[in-house]
Amino acid sequence: MRVFFFLIMLFFTGTSLFAQSSRLPTDAERTFVKKVEQRMSLLLGDAAKKMAGDWMIEFNADKSSQQQVNILQHDGKPHEFRCSLSMEYIATPAEKAAMDDELALYFKNQPKKETAAGSRLNDPSLKYSIEVTAIINPYSFTPVDVQQVSTLGATTNVPGSVLTLFRNKELGTGTPYYSLYLGDYHMVNENGKQLLKESFGKISDCTNARTMLIEVHSSPAVADLFISKLDLTAFNRLLQDL
Predict the structure, then answer these.
(1) What are phi and psi of 93, to 5 degrees?
(2) CA 160 to centroid of chain Cα atoms
(3) What is the DSSP string of 135-204?
(4) How far apart (Å, rounded) are the C-alpha atoms in residues 92 and 55?
(5) Which of 36, 40, 84, 61 is CA-nearest to residue 206?
(6) Cβ(91)–Cβ(187) under 8 Å?
(7) What integer pLDDT is reported at residue 4 of this predicted model?
(8) Residue with the larger pLDDT of the pair 34 and 121
(9) What confidence tens digit (pLDDT) does each residue in 122-150 have?
(10) What is the model's pTM?
(11) Which region holds residue 225: left if phi is over 0, alpha if psi is between -120 and 50, else beta?
(12) Partners of 133 in beta bridges
C-alpha cells in the first residue's frame, strides 16, 4: 500500500514539475507559427519545383511549437519554428539501371576502412535525395566559432546569407551538408576568434521572426544546385515581414 501511494505522489510531482516548465502557446504564437509555416512551405516548395527531373517532394512542419512551449528555452527569445523538406528523385527505367551500376561500382571500389568510417562524400546515392531542415528563431543557437567549424569543411559565399558553412568531415554515417544563417546575425572578433552571434538580446515580443538556419543535406553538387534555387531575398523578406 505504501508503494502504491508513493507511486501516486511521484506521478503528481512529475506532472507538477512538467506543468511548471511548460505552458500552452498563446493565440498570438499559434497565429505566428501558422504564418511562418505557410511562407516556408511556399518558399521551399518553389525551390524544389525548380530542380530538373521528377522528384517526390514532402514538406513537414513540426507541430510541437503549437502544442507546448518550454518556458526555460523560450524565456526572452523569439518563438521557434521548425520544418523540413524531403526530396527523392524518381528515376526512369534507364536512369534506374545506370544508378544501380554506379552504386555497385562505388561499393565495390570503396575501401573497407572508409566504409566503416562512414565516409559518404562521394556516395552516388546522395545525388538522388535532398533533405532540408529549417529553423526560424532556433532556441539552441550558440555563437559559432567560424574558424573552428571551417576546419570541418569550408565557408562559402552565398549572397543573402550572413554565413554559409559546408561540412564534409567527421560526419560518421551522416551526409555532407550546407548550413545557411540568415537574418539578425553579425560577425564579431573576440579574443582572437571570429564569432557569428545573434544581433539582439532578450526580447518581450516573441512573435517576431528574427533569425533562420537552413541545412541542406545531399551530395555537394546537388546541394549546391538546390541552394542556387532558393530565393534568399524572399526568405530574408519573411524575416522582415513577420
Answers:
(1) -55, -40
(2) 17
(3) EES-TT---EEHHHHHTTEEEE--TT-SEEEEE-SS-TTPPPEEEEEEESEEEEEETTEEEEEES----S
(4) 11
(5) 36
(6) no
(7) 45
(8) 34
(9) 788 888 999 999 999 999 899 999 999 99
(10) 0.85
(11) alpha
(12) 84, 215
More confident residue, 178 or 120: 178
pLDDT value for 111: 64
CA distance 34 to 99: 39
Which of 159, 136, 145, 144 has its CA nearest to residue 227? Answer: 159
Residue, of 72 and 55, whose pLDDT is higher: 55
CB neighbour class for 233 (10 Å; exposed up to 12, middle 13-18, buried from 19): exposed
Q: Which of 133, 45, 176 is nearest to 165 (CA)?
A: 176
Separation of alpha carbons 26 and 23, rounded Å: 9
CA–CA separation, 76 and 203 (whole Å): 5
134 in helix, strand or coil?
Answer: strand
- Cβ distance 184 to 136 under 8 Å? no
* Cell (9 digits) for 36: 511562418
Q: What does residue 81 show for φ and ψ, rounded to 5 degrees?
A: -140, 135
What is the mean predicted confidence (pLDDT) over 72-91? 92
- Beta strand 81-89 pairing with 144-145: unpaired
* β-bridge pairing 144-145 and 177-183: unpaired
